[in-house]
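Sequence in, structure out. Go.
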Amino acid sequence: MSKFNRFYGMMVIIYDLWSEKMVKKILAGFLILFIVFSCSNNENDFSLVIHGGAGSIYEGRYSAEEEQAFREKLTEALAAGHNILLSGGTSNDCVEAVVRIMEDSPLFNAGKGAVLNAKGNCELDASFMDGSTGKAGAVGAVSIVKNPISLSRKVMEKSKHVFLVGKGAEEFARENKLAIVDNSYFITEENRIELQKMQSEKSSVLNPSGKHEKLFSTVGCVARDKFGNITAGTSTGGMMNKKFGRLGDVPVIGAGTYADNNSCGISATGHGEFFIRNVVAYDISALMRYKGLSLDEAAEFVVNKKLVSQKGAGGIIGIDKDGEIVMKFNTSGMFRGYITQDGLPKVYLYNEK
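Output:
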């Protein structure tokens, strides 16, 4: 029997035994308040939402086998996160574990399978933010760290800084004994072919409505744990054929990633330059904090009005302080999914309503 049921039974017995009207009124009032509080308290609820990128993702594009591969990997990531949260694990541990699963899969533009820069190498970016403390960590242009999301968390927890890039970030990874791999580990033959095609066409930027969805196949996760804490994390290989040490929105706190227990957690995917200019992740949180918008209203305005007006393509996932989930995008599709305490994963690829 739960504590609530035992308490309820005790109160009913006392209520029946006492005859004084005033005592009955007091006890009845107290009992009603206790029931209302217990039913409205959702601190023990938890939720988790993920994305694997937004872009030219539409029905008919992929074979049945390819669709199944995407769905299975997203489901695997959700199941792993659910197990952590169900057992009382933290949102920080959940987000890191979930993003690592997607980084290790060649299906997405993060970690293994990331897109290539103009020189044919992978340069990876990631960020991590804890909504309970406001602390954050980010890394950019790392080329030998197996799981950039883990490095960004280490930056948050083990350094005095927020943002490390390039060789310095890699040195910090070695100091913290994170897995180091050769850059060839990340490279797939599919991406080599795509890069050659782009360079032969003399194209440095892909149209998000075109056929090269990997440009926007960034991965991300937002989780709210049983303690009410929200964490957001995002990881990417950036933009195919990128030059000049380009960094996108993913490692920029407030643009591609943001978390605040008082409002929401956000992870973004899309054309990074637009997400940086509009500080998309923070903008959604700010609209909630300062204008009183719901997460759904704020995300709808930023993604489907503000970004669309500038021809900025992409999407976001988010969870608010009460555990409500949103998945907004202005492209033809977004790899995405969510799971709550019921343990039933919901996975979507296209523009399903």
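Check: Residues 79 and 262 are 27 Å apart (CA to CA). The first strand starts at residue 47 and ends at 55.
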